[in-house]
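The material for today's practical consists of a large collection of protein records. There is nothing in a record beyond a sequence line and a structure line. As an example, a complete record with its sequence and its structure tokens follows:
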Amino acid sequence: MRILEYSGEELEHLAPEFFLPVIVRTGQDFRGRAAIQGLGKTLTLSRSHSGQMSAVRTNRMAARASVDNLMLFCIYTDGRGRVGQHNRYVELAGGTGVLTEARSRYERISSAETQRMSLRFSRELLPLRTTEITEACARSVDPAAPAMQMLSGYLGRLFEIADELTERQRLDAGQATIDLLAMVLRDVTPSVPGGDGPDDVLLEMMRSHVCEHLADPHLRVEELARRHHVSVSRMYTLFERIGTTPGAYLREQRLLAAQIMLSDPKYARLGTSDIADAVGFVDRRTFERGFRRQYGTTPAGWRRQHRHYGSGPATLTQEMPPR
């Protein structure tokens, strides 16, 4: 077992050893600790404890061929965080897991002290199709799911006894870990087998359209259906495939975009009404009610809580287009 203790400045240099190469932002008093177990040439299991932080993997970093095959599966054992990749953003609490891939830009924010167990591995080890792996990224894994309970329990026990295993046993244990992870991820992806049928393509087109046109106040359920030449009832059927409704998906994406803007010092001069407007909310009261319901605080309260990040990183969201 290898133990690392680090400050915020040191984390950016050490992250590739148990995390992925990222740009890190932390507070002045940030301290972290990681314990790492090697399970193979391209497979490591680690436990880490750190304070509030944000990490971004940029497009340029993602384009580097030397690490584009790396994957990271994290289980938040304590604390809360947020991860974004592929125009998806998920909130993570204790016990939930999330997969990210190095070959695409992503963002990770921990809004409080967190403890995580992380499995870092080569993409080639995972016995899933490329489309399945990408579709599984940035989706919350329910800690109550049977497969997730098996994986969490196995990882916890493996971490404790790994030092007692022979090299061959470590390799076998690592392979068993990947097999369990594949079982977990098969339950996460919303796509039907194959994942490339006409309905899947249409659904992905609509989801991309939502993320690219959040600032458009005219974008509503009926308008989304009209722009894609489908009936509203068919659109509801399509969104059932990912466990939501068109209206809920649109609202969630707008609120997530607003949350990221409120956390980013780049938008510090914008009032909450301006941010509501920038993500397509016509009525400020509707925006504030929805934000409070989703995140348990007002937009202004969220901004105050996250002001300590200082000059935060660039986010996954693009600049909002002019209205």
Remarks:
- Residues 127 and 230 are 36 Å apart (CA to CA).
- The chain is about 40% helix and 20% strand.
- The chain has a mean pLDDT of 83.
